Write a sequence for this structure.
C-alpha cells in the first residue's frame, strides 16, 4: 500500500464539519510540515499547503475528502516556501481563492507568473487581502477567525481559529521537531525544549508573544495545531504554553552588537561535480 494512503488523519469530525491533518507528506530534505484541510458544508479551506514537495502527495491525500476542483479557499499564513510556494499550481488546478495578509498579496503573484493567461485568470480577483487587524471569514454555517500574528515570525503573519473544532492553527508559533502523530497528546513540559531554539531565532520578540497571548486567551481553545510538529492539547498544556511564551525572550530581545560584526569567516563553497 502506498504509505501516503495513511497520511491523512481526521482530527475533528461532526456532521457537516471536518478537520483533516496531513503530517507526513514531506519527503527528502525539506523540513517536516503539517497541512490542514477544513471542510464545512459546501465550504472548504486548505491551510498552508506548501510547495513542490507537498503539491502532488497533498493533492492525492486530500482527494478522498474533497476533489481539488471544489476547493474553495487556500490560506497562506505568511509567504514562506513551506507555506505557499506551489501557489501557481494550486491556482491553475483548483478554483480556490487565496486568503493572505495584505503585505503578501502583492508579492505572491511572483509565484504565479508562468500560469497567468492560462486558467488562473486575474490573480488579484482570486485573493482576499487581509488587513493587519485580521477579520472574520464566512465559512460553512459559521465563520473562521483570521487572527493577527505579525512578527511570529513573518512581518505579515496570520492564523486561523476554527470555533467549531475549537482549534487554533498557529502556523510557525509552537513549531517543534518532535516526532509524534497528530492525534497524540504530549505534555508541554516535554515539548518545550524542542521549541526553544526555533522560537528564539524565528519569533520577533517577547513583547509580541505577550500581546498575542492576551488576544487568544479570550478564545475557547482545545487544540493548538502548529505547522511543524505535534499539536498542543488540553487546558493545562495550552496554559503552560502561554505561560512559557509570556516570559520567553526571542528575536530582537537577544540581539546584540556581537551579532552585527563584519564577518571574517570564509564560507565553504561546494565543489562543482564534473
Ligand atoms: Fe515560516
Ligand atoms: Fe514553517
Amino acid at each position: 500500500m502506498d504509505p501516503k494512503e495513511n497520511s491523512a488523519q481526521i482530527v475533528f469530525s461532526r456532521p457537516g464539519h471536518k478537520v483533516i491533518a496531513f503530517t507526513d507528506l514531506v519527503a527528502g530534505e525539506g523540513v517536516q510540515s503539517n497541512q490542514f484541510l477544513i471542510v464545512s458544508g459546501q465550504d472548504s479551506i486548505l491551510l498552508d499547503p506548501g510547495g513542490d514537495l507537498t503539491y502532488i502527495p497533498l493533492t492525492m491525500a486530500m482527494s478522498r475528502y474533497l476533489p481539488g476542483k471544489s476547493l474553495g479557499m487556500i490560506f497562506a499564513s505568511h509567504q514562506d516556501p513551506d507555506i505557499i510556494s506551489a501557489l501557481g499550481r494550486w491556482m491553475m488546478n483548483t478554483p480556490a481563492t487565496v486568503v493572505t495578509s495584505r503585505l503578501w498579496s502583492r508579492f505572491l503573484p511572483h509565484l504565479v507568473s508562468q500560469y497567468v493567461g492560462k486558467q488562473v485568470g486575474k490573480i488579484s480577483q482570486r485573493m482576499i487581502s487581509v488587513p493587519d487587524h485580521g477579520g472574520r471569514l464566512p465559512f460553512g454555517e459559521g465563520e473562521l477567525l483570521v487572527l493577527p500574528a505579525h512578527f511570529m515570525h513573518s512581518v505579515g503573519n496570520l492564523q486561523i481559529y476554527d470555533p467549531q473544532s475549537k482549534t487554533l492553527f498557529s502556523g510557525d508559533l509552537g513549531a517543534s521537531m518532535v516526532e509524534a502523530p497528530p492525534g497524540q497528546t504530549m505534555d508541554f513540559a516535554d515539548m518545550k525544549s524542542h521549541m526553544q531554539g526555533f522560537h528564539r531565532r524565528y519569533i520577533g520578540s517577547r513583547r509580541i508573544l505577550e500581546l498575542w497571548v492576551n488576544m487568544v486567551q479570550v478564545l475557547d481553545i482545545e487544540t493548538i495545531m502548529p505547522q511543524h510538529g505535534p499539536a498542543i492539547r488540553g487546558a493545562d498544556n495550552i496554559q503552560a504554553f502561554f505561560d512559557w511564551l509570556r516570559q520567553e525572550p526571542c528575536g530582537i530581545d537577544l540581539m546584540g552588537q556581537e551579532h552585527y560584526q563584519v564577518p571574517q569567516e570564509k564560507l565553504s563553497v561546494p565543489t562543482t561535480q564534473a
